[in-house]
Design brief:
Shape: elongated
Radius of gyration: 35 Å
Low-confidence stretches: none
Strand content: 15-25%
Mean pLDDT: 88
Largest sheet: 7 strands, mixed
Distance between the termini: 59 Å
Structural class: alpha+beta
Length: 366
């Protein structure tokens, strides 16, 4: 832009100079390749716009008696340029709308569907919600205390080995309980809930977990779990069996049977593995159940008193009352893999398909 020179500051000279600037603005709008946003920045920009440059050039050289005349004309010029920009922008919009060919076929809006993992997880959670359980959520990056120590995992337990657990880098200088890792189960949410709330508790915990495992048809370093925790007075193993039997029937159908086998988990005692009668053959025996008639589905048990003691100790550290008195309360916990249940339900043979993002696979569930 060329800033006109003002030889004298009479009203006639000022009118001519401002008219020349307005003409240049109109010419810029008429030029090919007009960009409304660039025009606004070039002319109305606060720091480097043309109007700023004109104001600095003319006001500095003007005598005191002419500054008022320049200021009045400058305000009028700014309004003119804003009007020019508004008209040009409206015109560009009209042209764009005019070029729309309404006779062309529209874009098809494809209907989406829930991912089979999310759908399965929601169905499992829904079963327990209808039984009065609330939903608990927590972070995927956890500290060692919540993930291991409070759950009765001693320091030399194999699950702590880096072959199973993904530990964040740069944690060596911290105390073991404060070191960060990718949670290996959703059990830390049980601890977080007990640290925040007093009994009674009934929570179901869905979420993603991470382990350093080689991927194959049935294993993935990332997978999903649903865990549950019930804490109250007079909770027994019979309550646990009744809860899980009802849940399996609600999810797989009323004909499904359950059976419990002794097992071991550091955070429950006694512990059990739960099997259900094969949903494919009705318990008669087939390839899916290895001709046994039963499918192992989840683990469970009564909460080990050591877990309650660890929670109480931590609550005291945090300045809270130790309300989990093992002489008065008891509880049970359970956990199941969502991926495996989804694979059973939908006949999926490779867990990798659930994480591949292959639309050809996912479209089957739409």
């Amino acid at each position: 832009m060329n800033i006109p020179e003002i030889k004298d500051f009479s009203e006639a000279s000022l009118d001519a100079a401002f008219a020349e600037v307005c003409h240049q603005a109109e010419a810029a709008v008429s030029a090919s390749g007009f960009d409304a946003e660039q025009f606004r920045l070039d002319w109305l920009g606060r720091k480097q716009g043309h109007l700023k440059a004109i104001s600095d050039a003319w006001l500095k050289a003007a005598p005191v008696e002419a500054k008022k005349l320049i200021g009045q004309r400058f305000n009028a010029l700014k309004e003119q340029i804003e009007g020019i920009l508004a008209s040009a922008s409206a015109g560009a919009t009209r042209v764009e709308v005019a070029e729309l060919d309404v006779s062309l076929p529209g874009s098809a809006q494809r209907i989406g569907a829930e991912h089979p993992l999310i759908k399965t997880q929601a169905e499992i959670v829904g079963v327990f919600q209808r039984m009065g359980y609330s939903v608990g959520l927590g972070p995927e990056v956890e500290n060692d205390f919540n993930n291991f120590e409070s759950l009765n995992f001693p320091p030399n337990h194999p699950a702590r080995d880096t072959q199973d657990t993904l530990v964040l880098a740069g944690q060596e200088g911290k105390p073991l309980r404060e070191r960060l890792l990718m949670r290996t189960h959703t059990s830390p949410v049980q601890i977080r809930t007990m640290l925040e709330q007093a009994p009674p508790l009934r929570i179901v915990i869905p979420g993603k977990v991470h382990r350093n495992e080689a991927a194959d048809a049935t294993h993935s370093p990332v997978f999903h779990q649903v865990e549950g925790l019930c804490v109250d007075t007079n909770i027994t193993f019979s309550d646990l069996k009744g809860t899980l039997d009802h849940a399996m029937k609600a999810f797989f159908g009323s004909a499904v049977k359950t059976r419990f086998f002794p097992s071991f988990f550091p955070f429950t005692e006694p512990s059990a593995d739960v099997q259900i009668s094969c949903i494919f053959c009705g318990g008669k025996g087939c390839r899916k159940c290895k001709h046994s008639g039963w499918i192992e589905l989840l683990g469970c048990g009564m909460v080990d008193p050591a877990v309650f003691e660890a929670v109480n100790a931590r609550r005291i550290e945090l300045g809270r009352e130790p309300v989990y008195d093992t002489a008065k309360i008891s509880g049970f916990a359970f956990g199941m893999g969502v991926d495996r249940i989804a694979m059973m339900k939908y006949g999926i043979s490779d867990i990798g398909l659930l994480y591949s993002g292959d639309m050809r696979f996912l479209e089957q569930f739409a």
